[in-house]
Amino acid sequence: MLTRIQRPQTSLSLLRFFSASSCRHGHISHIGRAPVTVPSLAVLTPSPTEITVQGPLGTTSVPLKPFVRLTFPQPGSLSIAVEDAKVKEQRQMWGTTRTLIHNAIVGMTEGFTVPVYLVGVGYRAMLEPDPRGTTEGNSGQRLNMKLGFSHSVLVPIPAYIKLELPLPTKIVMSCTDKHLLGLFAAKVRNWRRPEPYKGKGIFVGNEQIRIKQVKKK
Asked: In 10 A of CB 164, how many CB atoms?
């Protein structure tokens, strides 16, 4: 004879719900809800379609979605919000817009800088005039690098990038746009990506690689 065993009822308060914290505390963006600090050197001019950032290093603008709302709760502070955070697109663009505005303010007031290191025997770099001049948006200079090839690697420098070479193996890149700076640094790095056996290559910033052991027979 089979007997059905009834399980004791468990209170809902004792159950563990595997859900995101955003669902329990409402749809929020931890990055987007953080206020943006506006220094005294920056001037922000919002409009329905974009916000213009003006500073000592120039002027730039960040496009805005129609559902993005900007407020200035106090001097030197900017808050970003959206109409309905339950909508996935609005929730995604909330944090993205906040990051873009913050990067624009930093770029126009301080600028972005990233060091690039040439690691390898005989690796070195130098600046020289570009025979093509300032055509095609170039600055009139080019980067001449010795990277172990049978020839020199010549990279034209865009007008928006500033380079300094404190050492033959160190390149300091500066720009007011973080995205463009990263693209140019990646372009230079692609000529000699760091390899994991001897640790040679072009390293950007604090980049590190794990050295592998050579398999011996």
From this structure: 12
